[in-house]
Amino acid sequence: GTAEELLYLLGIMLHDSNVQQHIPIVLTGPAQSAAYFTVIDDFIGQTLGAKAQALYTIIVDDAAAVGSYLYKQKAKIGAYRKAIGDAYGFNWALKIDADFQHPFVPNHTTMAELSLSFEQPAHQLAANLRRAFSGIVAGNIKAQSVADIQAKGPYILHGDERLAPLLDTLLKSFVEQGRMKLPGSVYTPCFQVTAP
Questions:
Q1: Buried/exposed 71-93: b ≥16 CB within 10 Å, e otherwise
Q2: Of the chain's two ends, which shows fewer C-beta atoms within 10 Å, N or C?
Q3: Residues 73-108: pLDDT tens digits?
Q4: 89 domain residue, yes or no
Q5: Are residues 71 and 106 in the same domain?
């Protein structure tokens, strides 16, 4: 779920209309989350680039540092909103593309049709990666998706020759870290990543 939500936020922030926005994004958790943050940060860097990585901060196992960081960001947010005449309580200037305003309904067709290619703007790639992760989460836990996969086999994700291996590596690391299953159970992937 965390990767899906991070991709959602990054996709919004990567839109050209939001280049001046200042919205602090912090990835944080206990010490055992460090490996997860390392692989997700590496994946973001290789797929969406350094510009996307610059939109978030990773602070592991230090709640006080998170609080201090966010407190400092509050002044920057206030100054930006004041400079553009925007409200403090609602970010009217934030552009949320239509791709991020509608739920994604995963099935074998919609998952196979996702554009998982570098031949699109970064915010659209983030939207499609978010959809892929949303479908995988659904395939792991939602009754309709689980039944669909049991009947028709795993979802097939088609990525280009550069993106597919990156996605496959990330998803395999999630499996190895136990992020795809309930503790004590054996995970059977609900997806396959293919490249031409």
A1: eebeeebeebbeeeebeeeebee
A2: C
A3: 999 999 999 999 999 889 999 999 998 999 999 999
A4: no
A5: no
